[in-house]
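HUMAN: Ready with one sample?

ASSISTANT:
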Amino acid sequence: MSKRILIVGGGLAGTITANGLCRQLGGALGKGEVSITMLGNTDQHMYQPGLLYIPFGAMRETELFRDQRKVLDRRVNFLLDPATNIDVDGNKVECQSGKSISYDYLVIATGSRIVPEEIPGMAEGAHWFYDLDGARKMRNALAEFDGGKIVVNVNAPHKCPVAPLEISFMLHHHLAKRGLADKTEITYTYPIGRLHALEPVAHWTSAEFDKFGIKSETFFNAKSVDPAAKTIESEEGSTLPYDLLVTIPPHRGAEVIEASDLGAGGWVPTDRYSLNREGSTNVFVVGDTTNIPISKAGSTAHYEADTLVDNLASLVLEGRTARPYDGKVFCFVETGMDTGTYVWFNYETPPNPGPPSKMIHWSKLAYNRLYWLSARGLL
């Protein structure tokens, strides 16, 4: 009987997994021994890291999108039919159309979503770049900004943990080029007692912020925003005034995960090495959806998907897995509009950010252009 692989989610993790499986299982697919189906929420694939550049006019909106069908290997059965319930005991997924799809192996790659509405006043008073509409509004707000107090407010959990640092550096550089640096005060808030969850990155950030005069306040967990008074208040009792509030909104996993009772907050309990859903041998989790305590970032999704492709192909062909996921993450960090650095780490090796350079900045810009090869699993 043909083995049915079902992938729920058409973001980077799901797409790399689908394309990689097509390459490794090509022979079995050709003989009808395996089928690969993907359930997606949209027919457009978006390069999410590109949203960071939209507020500064450094990337065009059209560069962010490709037809999902064209990004996928033609052998993937792509269905624009969002999952509404995942039944891991019954080995089936119910869809918005009412269709029920059974599987032998399930890959959950449902990603994450922003929930600014969970903090009173945030949706009305803050700007962000984590979706296209938010990035557009922030672009308009920056065009009108002529100096004052900017608060960059970071909430947890959130994806792309270096993005709050990038937006802070890029704001400073952008405003300096407009002659507004001396008229602007940037304050960065973080919910724990340092400037980043990873201690080596936090130490590096502190020194870099000092270079640019970026202020900071730690132990700042946003409680509410008052759009009329233009203030943001923390659970710890601190109140900061702002002229422009840029927030990294809190995130949750996909609604279908919570509706299916697969994990609190939409995060699925996942074995950090095998990427199996805890308690399942035929259900795998990749990308933002996992509860693994590492970065929810594109590179994490990429390296997890690479591991999963090897393991799932080996399971189908040989009845065994190939290798564990080692926690590898690699993230470029923009340190302005023309310099950058990077962080690399895994479960055993902590990050060690190096000095920013123009070369690394251009490397990131080059990767932006190569993303579509990455999504196809060719990089």
Notes: Residues 298-318 form the longest helix (21 residues).
